[in-house]
Design brief:
The protein folds into 2 domains: 3-185, NAD(P)-binding Rossmann-like Domain (Rossmann fold, 3-Layer(aba) Sandwich), CATH 3.40.50.720; 193-279, N-(1-d-carboxylethyl)-l-norvaline Dehydrogenase, domain 2 (Orthogonal Bundle). 47% of the residues lie in helices and 13% in strands. The protein contains 12 helices and 8 strands. The structure holds acetoacetyl-coenzyme A. Residues 191-287 form the 3-hydroxyacyl-CoA dehydrogenase C-terminal domain.
Length: 288
């Protein structure tokens, strides 16, 4: 298989990442079916696309024809069979729960054409954890986007021991076709490169806030002004999701048994209150 053989991409999950990945793929000229078990999430994803694309045209950032093409390329369905049945490439961006992903990959293996590549956009789970739920582990890899996916340029591609060189190369080529810069990791490691670096920064930021050394706002002011990051760690975790930070911490703690890997008390407190950040309009900050 070659990059040119990819005509249709299926994006699984219409949440924080999936809805923007779907629009990225549609803008690159692919037919895209976005699927989710929640009709509400699909409706939100569809209205996002219908609002975002004309807005880009109005801002002079995109031609009308590009927006029209992207909208025509996009479809939304809550039926996995319908969305993935004729896909050449699948990007799974479902909830970060290993059992859900294993079941999805087994279903995708049954549903999709045998040539289809099955990639996971997981933020931290390596694809060997799901590849063996399929009979095509050589066609399984990580393709990891960053939030907001329409803006952030990096895509991490991880080639596990089970992933063929062809699958890794096509995925790198696809990242390029989507206008992204791909980085290919040839060894699996939990969290890959960026989220490992971010986790170290976040752990220290949470520690300082938990100890009462500085408030989240003060830490964000310090990091943005001293290190030149566009957002401080607390505003960023609001954007990427406090629920995600909680799940990552819990999953990692269960894997390593190291108490340092547990989500920090501040994250647990926000998670327990259902304050997940931008998506619930309240996290460390409040949003309109
Ligand atoms: N969706 C789509 N586009 C968005 C957007 C969103 N949520 N937020 C901002 N944009 C676009 C705007 O439309 C604007 O585009 P143009 O310049 O082409 O018009 C551009 O981004 C800049 O937006 P703003 O001027 O409104 O705001 P800003 O300059 O503060 O930028 C930001 C916003 C791009 C989010 C910037 O703050 C930033 O880069 N933050 C850091 C994000 C980051 O670190 N992401 C990685 C997170 S880690 C991760 O994702 C790991 C994981 O596994 C989930």
């Amino acid at each position: 298989m070659k990059l040119e053989d990819i005509k249709k991409i299926c994006v699984i999950g219409a949440g924080n990442m999936g809805h923007q990945i779907a629009v990225c793929c549609a803008l690159a000229g692919y037919q895209v079916s976005c699927t989710d078990i929640s009709q509400e999430m699909l409706d939100k994803a569809e209205s996002f696309a219908k609002g975002y694309l004309p807005e880009r045209v109005a801002k002079g950032k995109m031609k009308q024809e590009q927006a029209d093409m992207a909208l025509a390329n996009l479809s939304f369905s809550n039926k996995l069979e319908e969305a993935a049945g004729d896909a050449d490439y699948v990007i799974e961006a479902a909830v970060e729960k290993i059992e859900v992903k294993r079941k999805l990959f087994a279903d995708l293996d049954r549903i999709t054409p045998s040539h289809a590549i099955l990639a996971t956009n997981s933020s931290f789970i390596v694809s060997s954890e799901v590849a063996y739920s399929t009979k095509r582990p050589e066609k399984v890899c990580n393709m990891h986007f960053f939030n907001p996916a329409l803006v952030m340029k990096l895509v991490e591609v991880v080639q596990g021991a089970h992933t063929s060189a062809e699958t890794a190369q096509i995925t790198m080529d696809l990242a390029g076709k989507l206008g992204k810069t791909g980085v290919l990791l040839k060894k699996e490691i939990y969290g890959f490169v960026v989220n490992r670096i971010l986790a170290a920064l976040n752990a220290e930021a949470m520690f300082l806030a938990d100890m009462g050394i500085a408030t989240p706002e003060e830490i964000d002011i310090a990091v943005t002004n001293a290190l030149g990051h566009p957002m401080g760690p607390f505003r960023l975790v609001d954007l990427t999701g406090i629920d995600l930070a909680y799940y990552i911490g819990m999953e990692r703690y269960q894997t390593t048994g190291d108490p340092k890997d547990k989500p920090s008390p501040l994250i647990v407190e926000k998670f327990t209150k259902g304050e997940y950040g931008v998506k619930t309009k309240k996290g460390f900050y409040t949003y309109d």
